[in-house]
Design brief:
Elements lengths: L2 E8 L9 H8 L5 H9 L3 E3 L2 E2 L12 E8 L14 E4 L3 E6 L16 H9 L23 E7 L2 H13 L3 E9 L5 E9 L7 E4 L5 E12 L3 E8 L6 H8 L25 H8 L6 E9 L6 E5 L4 H12 L1
Parallel strand pairs: 7-13
Antiparallel strand pairs: 1-4, 2-3, 2-4, 5-6, 6-7, 8-12, 8-13, 9-10, 9-11, 11-12, 13-14
Helix pairs in contact: 1-2
Length: 323
């Protein structure tokens, strides 16, 4: 027999006069429209305490829904005693500073040594378990080689609220990046979709394919062939900053996936060749999430977290200033 997690939803003016299945897809993280239809048809959705089994039912303002979400079969991940740099913790959330070279969660061929393994050990398995239990606690992600601030959900109530904040783009995120070239301060917009030739990459287009994305970048300091920039995310798409900066001919230093064909042009000047070699040998993508702002999922208090750039960033900058 399946276990369920119950979610309450009140229809406001914005959600009214829409199909019920469409509304629930927009409000319940991680479920496709077909899965939502199945929930409705199986009697897992109630309107004013009475089952409703019509996915096409048109919602009305002030209606109250109760949704029983199936908790999928648990996938056990072994806890591992891996050091965590914890910035903040209470009974609902953890905020951590993720180091580079740490994978977020187990996947085929990489079942151990991940952030999830570390979290399972530290919290004694006390994490949210909505996402098929394959990524307990994980509400958002940073790439393996990206360092910086992450928020983790310790229970399902916190997870659902944080997921909604990310969906509504009310969470503020800022990054520091060291990039090739000297990009202008600007806003970069476009639609991001999976690359049709290389499924490990994402592509940017202005034709409406994929999901809309926007990043503001601000030039902070330049070293001639490379620069430090500040990035503010309006949206949070997969590889967003990496794709956006590559589109402006300023790929991130150390990014092994994007912009490799654009790099050698920066090594042609003998006067900056030493800098070029220092940059080319940096062993991870120079991207760091230094700011995260969110509303606490339970108390609703606004919380802002900021951290310094890591040591490898500082060392790279010192070398660039020296040469």
């Amino acid at each position: 027999m399946n276990d369920f997690y119950n979610v309450k939803l009140r229809i406001n003016k914005q959600l009214s006069l829409q199909r019920l299945d469409k509304v629930l897809v927009s409000k319940i993280e991680g479920y496709s429209r077909s899965q939502i239809k199945t929930l409705i048809l199986n009697g897992n959705v109630s309107l004013n305490e009475e089952e409703i089994k019509d996915p096409s039912y048109i919602t009305k303002e002030n209606e109250n829904y109760s949704i029983n979400i199936i908790l999928r079969k648990e996938k056990k991940h072994p806890g591992e005693n891996i050091d965590l740099n914890i910035i903040y913790e209470d009974e609902d959330i953890l905020v951590i500073n993720k180091p580079p070279n740490l994978v977020m969660h187990p996947a085929p061929g990489n079942e151990n040594g991940t952030l999830v393994n570390a979290l399972m050990h530290y919290t004694n398995n006390q994490l949210s378990n909505l996402d098929d239990n394959s990524r307990p606690g994980i509400v958002h992600r940073l790439d393996k080689d990206t360092s910086g601030i992450l928020v983790v959900a310790k229970n399902n109530r916190a997870h659902l609220n944080l997921a909604e904040q990310f969906k509504e783009h009310s969470i503020s995120r800022k990054y520091k990046a060291i990039v090739w070239g000297v990009p202008d301060s600007q806003s970069i917009e476009g639609y991001i979709e999976r690359n049709r030739k290389n499924r490990k990459k994402m592509s940017l287009n202005n034709k409406g394919f994929g999901k809309y994305s926007k990043t503001d970048i601000k030039l902070e300091k330049t070293f001639g062939i490379a620069s430090i920039i500040d990035c503010y995310l309006h949206t949070g798409r997969t590889h967003q900053i990496r794709v956006h900066l590559t589109s402006k001919n300023s790929p991130i230093i150390g990014d092994k996936v994007y912009g490799k064909s654009k790099i050698n042009q920066f090594g042609r000047d003998k006067n900056t060749f030493n800098k070029f070699m220092i940059l080319k040998n940096f062993n991870r993508q120079a991207l760091h999430a230094y700011h995260l702002g969110l509303d606490h999922p339970i108390s609703k208090k606004r919380m802002n977290f900021n951290i310094e750039i890591p040591e490898d960033f500082k060392n790279l900058i010192e070398l660039l200033l020296k040469y």
